[in-house]
Amino acid sequence: MSATTTTARLLPGKPVADQVLADVAARSAALRARGVTASLATLLVGDDDASAGYIRIKQQQAAALGFASPHEHLPATATQADVQRVITAWNDDPAVHGMLVQYPIPGHLDYNAALQAMDPDKDVDGMHPVNMGRLALGIPGPLPCTPAGIEALLAHYDIGVAGREVVILGRGATLGRPLAMLLAQKRPTADAAVTVVHTGVKDWARYTRRADILIAAAGVPGIIQPEHVKPGAVVVGGGVRYEGRRILPDVDESVAGVAGAITPRVGGVGPTTVAMLFRNVVAAAERAHP
Ligand SMILES: NC(=O)c1ccc[n+]([C@@H]2O[C@H](COP(=O)([O-])OP(=O)(O)OC[C@H]3O[C@@H](n4cnc5c(N)ncnc54)[C@H](OP(=O)(O)O)[C@@H]3O)[C@@H](O)[C@H]2O)c1
């Protein structure tokens, strides 16, 4: 337990996710009224309990939103060709609007090859190279879920990003890099002066200390300490490491004593990430049925 008194305003992800999912449910109902059932197909390879659990949660959420959720489960001994066959069948199936391969997959398989085999319009994680290219060029398409969730979270809490200094610690492909592209776009909820720091910037604290909005995306528990934060700044904890079921966030709890607003240790960015996945599915279904 930290002795630090929390002074920062908390920014939980659930109210943001609830609002996004209410919109997704309405759009799903509008599609159904036109005879279209949005659908999210999921592929699990192997018998990892946690992965099976994540798929179940997504299927339950899909059902609550009125989506179909076809599922394939391949054994841990599946080959890359087996994975490819499932993806190709879904690519060719007009009733499937979005798909995901639950990560991680067994070590002998190539996750990136599976991702690249997908029809980019059905890649609801928004991580296909074509979708990264669309993001870089500002062309509409599925957005990477965690970065899109962070933009939505800041917008939900009326935290102005436009014209302000956003510093992101981490340039990883799932979080830091796409988030930097997203928040630098010309849009009222973006339009920021974005700086990205990483292990190549030894004195990264020089940058984080001047940030109006600091986003941790390193995956190094406790890397952000109070002395790295400008008093009153907004701090968003995206990076986490899991030790079994324990969540170890990048942002130390004591940062709440310095920040003006901060995502909670648990239930910050996570719920918004999941909501964005479903937003990508409904958007894919709408694009397929204009
Ligand atoms: N909450 C969610 O829903 C959610 C979703 C997706 C990802 N995440 C989390 O987000 C984090 C980032 O994911 P990712 O895949 O984008 O990351 P990644 O590929 O692991 O990249 C981590 C980044 O952090 C930087 N970094 C690591 N240690 C550092 C240090 N000591 N000093 C300065 N920079 C350091 C690395 O710098 P170099 O490039 O120089 O190596 C790299 O750019 C992970 O913790 C992941 O679990 C959370």
UniProtKB/TrEMBL annotation:
SUPFAM superfamilies: Aminoacid dehydrogenase-like, N-terminal domain (SSF53223), NAD(P)-binding Rossmann-fold domains (SSF51735). Belongs to the tetrahydrofolate dehydrogenase/cyclohydrolase family. This is Bifunctional protein FolD. The lineage of its organism: Bacteria, Bacillati, Actinomycetota, Actinomycetes, Micromonosporales. Pathway: One-carbon metabolism; tetrahydrofolate interconversion. It comes from Catellatospora aurea. Residues 11-125 form the Tetrahydrofolate dehydrogenase/cyclohydrolase catalytic domain. It holds the Pfam family THF_DHG_CYH_C. It catalyses: (6R)-5,10-methylene-5,6,7,8-tetrahydrofolate + NADP(+) = (6R)-5,10-methenyltetrahydrofolate + NADPH; (6R)-5,10-methenyltetrahydrofolate + H2O = (6R)-10-formyltetrahydrofolate + H(+). NADP(+) binds at G170, R171, G172, V240.
